[in-house]
Every structure is written in structure tokens, then in C-alpha cells.
């Protein structure tokens, strides 16, 4: 993973994450076909890593039905962590856009590599490992 820190005591239980993020994590981990890992995910308490915003490549976020208004509606809201797996950016393109727009320097993330997942897909992008 890109060099970052972990907030002391900053952990989020799977069940405390927003339902849409739980569903996404369940799908991502389920793609591994590792039932034990899937069960572990449901009871896991994820460390919240802080990764420099510069580690996230500047990409287009307007790739589907969620347009600029969708992302702008997030400004000022409490947002869940972005999802990474090692050096792969898995989810959170709109959140990262909002955090950039609002001047955040470090981004809260859950790293699925922490539970032993090797994400088999490309993801949104590779994180800039030199950061």
C-alpha cells in the first residue's frame, strides 16, 4: 500500500459502514471465492488508513449516471472511507474528488489487503506509490 498512517483506535466494524459500502465490500470480497474470507469480512473491524490525496491519480469521475451534481451534493457531508487493496484504488472516485475540492491532504481508506484479499481486477486506477 502507499505509505500512509493509521489513526490510533480508528477502526470501523463492517456493520457500522453504510449499507451500500457493505454491499460493495461483500461483492468485492465475494469475487475471491474464499468463503472464510467472506465470513471474516462480516465481523472484521477495519483499520482506517490515511493516505496522501496525491496518491490518488487525477481521473475523470463522470463515467456513469452519477454526474457532477451527484458529487457536489457530497460536499460538506460525512463520507465513508475510500476502498483500496494494496496499490489498487477500488472505490471512492466521487469521495476523492470531494476531498480534493475541499482541500483535504489525507484521505481515509480501508485497505482490503489487511484481511488478506488479493483484488483480482484492475480497479479504478493504481495508486501513485511514489507518494
Radius of gyration: 14 Å
Main sheet specs: 6 strands, mixed
Q: Which strand order spans the largest sheet, edge to edge or round the barrel?
A: 1-2-5-3-4-6
Distance N to C terminus: 11 Å
Mean pLDDT: 86
Instruction: Assess the beta-strand content as a share of residues.
Output: 25-35%
The total count of strands amounts to 6
Low-confidence region ranges: none
**How helical, in percent, are the residues?**
25-40%
Number of domains: 1
Shape: globular
Structural class: alpha+beta
Fold and architecture overview:
The protein has one domain (5-108). Helix 1 (19-30) runs antiparallel to helix 2 (35-43). It has a 6-stranded mixed sheet with strand order 1-2-5-3-4-6. The chain contains 4 helices and 6 strands, in the order βααβαββαββ. The protein has helices at residues 19-30, 35-43, 68-72, 93-101, and strands at 5-13, 45-52, 82-85, 88-91, 106-111, 125-126.
Q: Summed up, what is this model?
A:
Helix content is about 25%, strand content about 25%. The chain has about 130 residues and is an alpha+beta fold.
Task: Tell me the layout of helices and strands.
Elements: E1 5-13, H1 19-30, H2 35-43, E2 45-52, H3 68-72, E3 82-85, E4 88-91, H4 93-101, E5 106-111, E6 125-126
Amino acid at each position: 500500500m502507499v505509505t500512509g498512517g493509521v489513526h490510533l483506535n480508528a477502526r470501523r466494524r463492517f456493520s457500522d459502514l453504510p449499507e451500500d459500502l457493505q454491499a460493495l465490500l461483500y461483492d468485492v470480497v465475494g469475487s475471491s471465492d474464499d468463503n472464510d474470507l467472506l465470513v471474516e469480512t462480516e465481523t472484521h473491524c477495519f483499520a482506517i488508513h490515511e493516505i496522501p490525496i496525491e496518491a490518488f491519480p487525477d481521473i475523470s469521475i463522470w463515467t456513469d449516471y452519477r454526474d457532477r451534481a451527484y458529487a457536489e451534493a457530497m460536499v460538506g457531508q460525512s463520507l465513508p472511507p475510500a476502498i483500496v487493496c494494496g496499490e489498487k484504488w477500488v472505490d471512492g472516485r466521487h469521495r476523492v474528488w470531494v476531498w480534493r475540492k475541499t482541500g483535504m491532504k489525507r484521505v481515509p481508506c480501508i485497505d482490503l489487503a489487511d484481511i488478506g484479499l488479493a483484488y483480482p481486477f484492475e480497479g479504478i486506477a493504481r495508486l501513485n506509490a511514489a507518494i
